[in-house]
Design goal:
The chain is built from 15 helices and no strands. The chain is mainly alpha-helical. Helix 7 crosses helix 13, helix 10 crosses helix 12 and helix 14 packs antiparallel against helix 15.
């Protein structure tokens, strides 16, 4: 880009009016006044090695990264037994081994890969992480914590909410009054209740309605609540995609003699889901961030584990809390940004054939 082209671009996009010019200068001032001091605190004046809080004490010290390094295993596994953490690592690696080929468009056998991720891998992961099977020591969910709990809640909610949301969206647009009414009642009920209330009811109130002697695991109750809650929001996203499909597509399917499920599976749903990829991924990202709410029911997710470790007097420093929260924000940003960029990639790839 030449100098003249650059100047024209700046005038057109950043200084097209006095208001846009003033807003551009204000944003530049905000960046200048916040980013350099933050980088100075996080990198230049930061402490990178040490065995305790003494290494991070001092008026000129920045971020206390040894606190993160020393508690990294707690942030990932929580109180999961140290000698059994290889099972969590193996479960993560097996899931990653199935996820990576699924995300690469040109890798063959997508249907088998999907079956592995949706059916086989969850059962393998449950056996490995929870144990309580012949040859494996059981680990109570009260000992789970950190990134392990965050991923379990997020993955369960994402995997369960997607098919449930599709079925609810189809049910809401059904021509059968009973199915349509039940779907609308389900969707509107769960969308009208905050997730905090859902988790509280699942953890505290639900056991009161169970028969005496019947006890459901606290994590399992939260997983069910999160899946039902997120499926209602997913249903509305999918319903928007279904409404965007032209009526002529349905009529063409009827003219070909296709059944209802053939029409939906082969013609309507592929077009509907492609048009709402941003909304679907936005729901996934929101669900991933909402996993922090499980702290109110006694489950220590990644952010909750960071907050617990901040109370360790061995690492109690003035900048300890800021360091922990910056690290937590960075981890959440990496996951959410990765999902966002992949959705952009898939959207461009799926729309390539429609470009004019």
């Amino acid at each position: 880009m030449t100098a003249n082209a650059s100047i024209k671009w700046l005038r057109r996009n950043l200084f097209s009016s006095w208001w846009n010019g003033a807003l551009t200068l204000f944003v530049l001032y905000v960046f200048w006044s916040t980013i350099p001091p933050f980088l100075d605190w996080a990198l230049v004046r930061a402490v990178w090695s040490g065995e305790g809080r003494e290494a991070c004490l001092g008026p000129d010290k920045g971020a206390c990264w040894p606190f993160i390094f020393a508690n990294l295993d707690q942030f990932i596994y929580g109180r999961y037994p140290t000698e059994l953490r290889w099972r969590v690592d193996l479960a993560f690696l097996l899931g990653l081994a199935g996820l990576v080929p699924m995300l690469i468009p040109r890798v063959p056998a997508k249907l088998w890969n999907l079956g592995y991720l949706v059916v086989a891998w969850p059962m393998i992961a449950i056996v490995l992480i929870a144990g309580d099977r012949p040859g494996l020591v059981g680990v109570d969910t009260d000992l789970w914590g950190g990134l392990l709990v965050t991923l379990v809640v997020a993955i369960t909610g994402i995997v369960a909410s997607f098919p449930l949301g599709i079925l609810l969206a189809l049910g809401r647009r059904s021509e059968m009054p009973v199915i349509r009414t039940l779907s609308i009642m389900f969707i509107e009920f769960w969308r009208g209740v905050p997730l905090v209330t859902v988790l509280f009811m699942a953890s505290v109130m639900l056991p009161l309605f169970l028969p005496q002697g019947v006890r459901l695991d606290n994590l399992l109750r939260c997983l069910v609540g999160v899946a039902l809650f997120s499926s209602a929001y997913m249903a509305e996203v999918v319903r928007g995609g279904l409404q965007a499909v032209p009526r002529g597509q349905y009529e063409a399917a009827r003219a070909l003699g296709l059944s209802y499920w053939q029409t939906m599976g082969l013609i309507v749903l592929p077009q509907a889901l492609r048009s709402v990829i941003p909304g679907i991924v936005n729901t996934f990202i929101g669900l991933f961030k909402d996993t922090t709410l499980v702290l109110i029911v006694g489950l220590f997710d990644f952010l909750g584990q960071v907050r617990i470790q901040l109370s360790d007097m061995h690492w109690a420093t003035p900048q300890g809390a800021a360091t922990g929260y910056v690290f937590a924000a960075l981890v959440y940003w990496v996951f959410c940004f990765g999902m966002s960029r992949y959705s952009v990639f898939m959207e461009k790839r799926l729309n390539a054939g429609r470009a004019r």
